[in-house]
Amino acid sequence: MARKSDKRRRPKRVSATEASRSFSKLLDDVEAGRRFLIHRRGRDVCVMAPPLVVGRRASECLAYLRGRSSAVLDDRFGEDLLEVLAGEPVEERPSWDS
Length: 98
Prior knowledge:
Helices cover about 40% and strands about 15% of the residues. The protein is an alpha+beta fold.
């Protein structure tokens, strides 16, 4: 029996004809996070899905901000930034780097 979370991960299978007739609706659904497997003549031809989002580390954001014009920061900015950095996962270095 498939779990509910499995159902969300699997793309819904849609024919190319149906996709072309309801393209705007499909885009709305993709924007909402749904995935579709488009098939034509019995063969799967593409997946329509939201783009992968790559997150940025706080250190990358800080480097980006340093490169921009100066900003006015409140007194708690340093504390807030330390809290964010403390929540970042620690990268494990391979043994050959030590």
